[in-house]
């Protein structure tokens, strides 16, 4: 297999593994679905161009999330606010879990929708932290991606997580609507 | 230290259930699209550079020749200034491009932001000072050569006025572009500084 084919294969494997996470990230930073698609393409292009420089000094996923969040920051600073009313982000991303009764599926779908809204309400840097946390990165990995100190990450995440849990609990009890 | 973040909890489970898994078809489509975009991007950069250098070379050679064949000393001087000015601009741009590399997106968040902000500063400075390093040498040369038009002095004055107006217009456009970039930089700073 030649070098180019290997490169393509490596890149395709990356995309296959991380596309759902990158899509979630894009839709969390953008106003509408088409804008989310644009950001996704920007990130995918940056990954394509950066892959040849990746030497494994950090883990693959911290490398990937660094690129994704840095590109998202540049994108957010440049973008003009436009809302795609035809394809709302929430409905496109929402996938209720299968295999349970309709009532609990609906409740789960509502919680997911609310979680998306809560994430999108956050200021940019907090949103970055919480997205990394929600994708399952450890505080050490978040520190590597963001450059923030571990204690700073821990304190901020603790506060955000508490807020999210409260809001989701309240919503469950039917007392709060977003 | 709270290590509970390192375990997948209910919020993570909910979140990771959003969206659908990627399919081979989707990955294939993305790669097709990207290859097109990447090659288009490289071609655009290549041709932009070729055009910049070719335009500077043509202007420099043409005005250099005109300086030799012009009869009026003022026109000779004006043409020579334009010729040297075109060379100066291309050398200046080339040295600026060499000294300011693009921030690598795989840098840590803080390093990337700092590199990006420094790049914004350089670009803003370049645009704001374009009147001095870009417009002025060419405008002075063109005005001087226009004023050196012995055959039709009135036309020379008109041409000089047009050149000055043109130079002012270009300076204003660059200034506006700098203002737009400054707004982008401000937005970026706002995004990274806003606290939760």
Provide an overview of this structure:
- The complex is a heterodimer of chains A (178) and B (196).
- Chain A is mostly helical and 178 residues long.
- Chain A is built from eight helices and no strands.
- Chain A has helices at 3-29, 33-50, 60-78, 89-93, 102-121, 124-134, 139-146, 150-172.
- In chain A, helix 1 (3-29) packs across helix 3 (60-78) and helix 2 packs across helix 3 (60-78).
- The model of chain B is unreliable at 1-8 (pLDDT under 50).
- Chain B is built from six helices and no strands.
- Chain B is mainly alpha-helical and 196 residues long.
- Chain B is elongated, with a radius of gyration of 26 Å.
- Chains A and B meet through helix 1, helix 2, helix 3, helix 5 and helix 6 of A and helix 1, helix 2, helix 4 and helix 6 of B.
Q: What attributes does this structure have?
A:
heterodimer; A: 178 residues; mainly alpha; 74% helix; B: 196 residues; 6 helices
Task: List the topology elements.
The complex is a heterodimer of chains A (178) and B (196).
Chain A: H1 3-29, H2 33-50, H3 60-78, H4 89-93, H5 102-121, H6 124-134, H7 139-146, H8 150-172
Helix pairs in contact in A: 1-2, 1-3, 2-3, 3-7, 5-8, 6-8
Chain B: H1 10-16, H2 24-69, H3 73-99, H4 109-128, H5 130-147, H6 153-193
The SS-based structural class of chain B is: mainly alpha
Number of helices of chain B: 6
Main beta sheet of chain B: none
How far apart, in Å, are the first and last alpha carbons of chain A?
53 Å
Mind summarizing the main beta sheet of chain A? none
Gist of the model:
Chain A is mainly alpha-helical and about 180 residues long. Chain A has helices spanning about 5-30, 35-50, 60-80, 90-95, 100-120, 125-135, 140-145, 150-170.
């Amino acid at each position: 297999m030649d070098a180019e084919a290997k490169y393509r294969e490596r890149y395709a494997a990356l995309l296959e593994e991380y596309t759902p996470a990158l899509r979630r990230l894009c839709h969390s930073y953008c106003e509408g679905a088409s804008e989310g698609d644009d950001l996704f393409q920007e990130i995918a292009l940056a990954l394509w161009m950066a892959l040849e420089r990746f030497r494994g000094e950090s883990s693959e996923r911290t490398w990937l999330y660094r690129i994704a969040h840095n590109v998202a920051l540049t994108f957010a600073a440049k973008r003009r606010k436009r809302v795609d009313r035809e394809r709302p982000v929430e409905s496109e991303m929402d996938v209720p879990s299968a295999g349970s009764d309709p009532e609990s599926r609906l409740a789960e779908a509502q919680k997911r929708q609310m979680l998306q809204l809560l994430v999108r309400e956050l200021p940019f840097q907090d949103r970055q932290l919480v997205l990394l946390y929600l994708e399952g990165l450890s505080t050490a990995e978040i520190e590597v991606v963001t450059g923030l100190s571990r204690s700073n990450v821990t304190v901020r995440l603790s506060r955000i997580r508490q807020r999210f849990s409260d809001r989701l609990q309240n919503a469950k009890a039917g007392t709060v609507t977003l | 230290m709270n290590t509970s973040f390192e375990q997948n909890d209910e919020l993570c489970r909910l979140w990771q259930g959003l969206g659908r898994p990627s399919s081979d078809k989707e990955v294939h489509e993305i790669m097709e699209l990207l290859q097109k975009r990447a090659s288009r991007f490289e071609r655009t950069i290549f041709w932009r550079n070729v055009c910049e250098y070719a335009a500077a070379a043509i202007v420099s050679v043409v005005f250099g020749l005109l300086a030799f064949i012009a009869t009026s000393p003022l026109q000779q001087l004006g043409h020579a200034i334009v010729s040297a000015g075109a060379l100066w601009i291309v050398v200046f741009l080339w040295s600026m491009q060499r000294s300011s590399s693009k921030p690598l997106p795989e840098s840590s968040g803080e390093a990337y932001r700092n590199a990006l902000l420094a790049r914004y500063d350089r670009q803003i400075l370049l645009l704001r000072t374009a009147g001095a390093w870009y417009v002025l040498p060419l405008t002075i040369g063109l005005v001087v050569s226009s004023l050196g038009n012995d055959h039709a002095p009135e036309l020379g004055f008109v041409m000089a006025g047009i050149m000055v107006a043109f130079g002012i217009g270009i300076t204003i456009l660059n200034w506006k572009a700098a203002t737009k970039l400054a707004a982008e930089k401000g937005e970026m700073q706002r995004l990274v500084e806003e606290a939760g």
